Amino acid sequence: MPELPEVETIKRGLENSLKNQTVLSVKCHRDTLRQVIPRRIESDLTHAKMINFARRGKYILIGLNNQQTILFHLGMSGKIIISPEIINSTIQKHEHMTLITQEGQRLSYIDPRRFGVIDLYPSAQIHPLLRRMGPEPLGDNAYQQTLIIHLQKYLANKKQPIKLTLLDQHIISGLGNIYVCEALFLAGISPLRESKTLKHSEIIKIVKRIQEILTQAIEAGGSSIRDYVHSDGKKGYFQMQWKVYGKEHDLCINCLTKGKKIGIKRITQGGRSSFYCDNCQK
Ligand SMILES: [Zn+2]
User: Fold this and answer.
1) How far is the CA of 185 from the centre of ligand 1 (A)?
2) Is 212 considered catalytic here?
């Protein structure tokens, strides 16, 4: 599943390739993904200029000069590929939408498992899928303080394990399983900890580690934008070196520096795997 850094990288790639370009034609090759694709997309997008590119959580938003916004979500397996438009080029397997610009670029939305979303809505409104989303995890220093206060307020009465709280998109948006596992490891906090037991200093650590790891991943992605939106899309995740995610039975690198051989554990929380070290994450 594309996570926030991948989505941010795709957004930047689209902006670099398509900003201020005008839509020549749009063709949807099916009616429904996770929800219905509005038919009017084909007519409403034609002749519109793509002027504003944004990300909210894992949604990509493209603002048009006709006061409408396109919303994309990549679901479990979606990708967006930009290529030069070749006349009469064939539709790729699982390509559900093709957008061609007057400047000769082609945007292909491809999603084999079809859990993604393509929608169009008035720019002056907030899309229903975005209305109940928590704040973004990334921002400047002043924003970091705001986020810490926000989290402290929400964690204060929550019994649920911190791992599940951080995955709750109503509390903080855009965090997926991999980044939460890694951030908790770096912060030395067990995924099993009751949210309300976290001290102020621990919340600060979590927020900082989340921001560091997302920023690193976006920077790693910056150099692979071309792989992400300009090729056949075979490359999936950035080549980030995970410390606990997917490392069940590997030795904890943190404990190893202290001469202890402790294996990474895998447990299931909320139907998803959590990887952690029960020696150094408390
Ligand atoms: Zn450890």
Assistant:
1) 8
2) no
* Tokens linked to 44: 């409403």
Q: What confidence tens digit (pLDDT) does each residue in 133-168 have? A: 999 999 998 999 999 999 999 999 999 999 999 999
Residues 6 or more apart whose Cβ sits within 8 Å of residue 219: none
Catalytic: 2? Answer: yes
Residue range 71-78: mean pLDDT, rounded = 91
Q: Angle 200-222/177-187 helices, nearest 10 degrees?
A: 130
What is the pLDDT of the chain when averaged over all its residues? 91
Q: In angstroms, what is the span from residue 65 Cα to ligand 1's centroid?
A: 52
Question: Which residues, 6 or more positions from 227, have their beta carbon under 8 angstroms from its beta carbon?
Answer: 235
CATH class of 4-130: alpha beta
pLDDT digits (tens, 9 = 90+) for 167-209: 999 999 989 899 999 999 999 999 999 999 999 999 999 999 9
DSSP 3-state of 178: helix
Sequence ranges of the domains in the chain: 4-130, 141-276
58 a catalytic residue: yes
Pick the CATH number of 141-276 from 3.40.50.2000, 3.30.450.30, 1.10.1740.10, 1.10.8.50: 1.10.8.50
